[in-house]
Amino acid sequence: MVLKNMSSKLITNAHLATMDEELSYGLIENGSIVIEDDRIIWAGSSTDLPEKFFSITQKDMQGRLITPALIDCHTHIIHGGNRAHEFEMRLNGASYEEIARAGGGIASTVTATREASEAELLSSALPRVDALIAQGVGTIEVKSGYGLDIDTEIKILRVARTLEHHRPINVVTSFLGAHAVPPGANADTYIDEVCLPALEAAHAQKLVDAVDGFCEGIAFDTEQISRVFKKALALNLPVKLHAEQLSHIGGTALAAKYGALSADHVEYAQTPDAAALAAAGTVAVLLPGAFYTIHETQVPPVQTFRDHGVPMAVGTDWNPGSSPLGSLLLAMNMACTLFRLTPAEALAGTTLNAARALGLADRGVIAPGQRADLAIWNISEPAELSYGIAINPLHARIFGGLV
Ligand code: DI6
Ligand code: FE
């Protein structure tokens, strides 16, 4: 059979980091990839390319590195306003309490998000999506959580869903109604009367791919999060959790107990937590942007995660408060420099393990059957992706088989 189809592409003379072997990047020097429509149908060493593909017009990559398109598995990019003024106030000596009393902190983002129209939320989110696309990102997760009322949580998720119609990007949504207790509200009453009904309503509108929560002294305890998770399971939705970011209160164990896709932040996770994550197949998502911004000093137990075989992912946590970080490549660099990940772990963390943190089996690796989402870089060694600080070596991105 001779394959000659307009939708077929043959990429040759590339250095492939297939990521199918985590520690060695699954490296193939002088590799080729055959794409049919939006799927990879063959990848390997050019010398092994089957004859039936010889007739497809070749695209010579001149030795460039190709990785799976990157995946940012933890963002809060849909929100109103920003908190630059609070950043400035703090650096001029104001305390967090003073800022909070003046209506600042997370409450100010909630107010701005409630006041913004869907069109305004969309137009402020699109440049953030563009920044990630420009770094070779093909899939992003987007959370709600700055509405804290039924209508605004749904508004955020509706905008998240429309991003795919405006840009070549795949979006996975997470409902994060249990992000913060609205000012003046009681946490239990909020969960029962706002968060759970909002989840049901958003799910009924097919706006929710996963359910997230913030399990922390300043947010919700394990019992309150359990109620949210029970509802998620009843709706057949996977769960994930912001756990052990600022203190150890049992969120990681809870996430593992519910078979969560991921436990995120996890700076304060302990050895039994790592064992529980490994047993549950839950990914530890590391978010160095928040660690950096809030001057955290407790480093996540990376060696313990390694010892227990916990898969590790890396995300931006792009949000206006604790992580105004618009670069997944910088997150990879920070994960290496601040958390001592190896560059191979950092790249696995934004490809195969990020896919896993989102429950996606069709991306994050260069292999037959996977989506043809690829990043082509003007470098030849994959460690360069984590080594550079605020350097973007992207040459081009292929998304769903299209350049
Ligand atoms: N983790 C955080 O660090 C924040 N939310 C979360 O789940 C902070 C969000 C904010 O300050 O706006
Ligand atoms: Fe977050």
Keywords:
15 helices, binds 3-[(4S)-2,5-dioxoimidazolidin-4-yl]propanoic acid, 403 residues, Urease, subunit C, domain 1, 7-stranded mixed sheet, TIM Barrel
Corresponding CATH superfamily of the largest domain: Metal-dependent hydrolases
Report the CATH topology name of the largest domain.
TIM Barrel
How many angstroms separate the termini? 26 Å
Shape-level CATH architecture of the largest domain: Alpha-Beta Barrel
Overall pLDDT, averaged? 96
Unique bound compounds: 3-[(4S)-2,5-dioxoimidazolidin-4-yl]propanoic acid, fe (iii) ion
Q: What would the principal axes of the Cα set say about the shape?
A: globular
Please indicate the percent range of residues in DSSP E strands (runs of 2 or more): 15-25%
Helix content: 25-40%
Order of helices and strands: EEEEEEHHHHEHEHEHEHEHEHHEHHHEHE
Major beta-sheet overview = 8 strands, parallel
SS field, number of helical segments:
15
* Structural domain count: 2
Highest-level CATH class of the largest domain: Alpha Beta
Structural classification: alpha/beta
Number of strands: 15
Strand order of the largest sheet: 6-7-8-9-10-11-12-13
Cα-based radius of gyration, to the nearest Å: 21 Å
Poorly predicted regions? 1-5
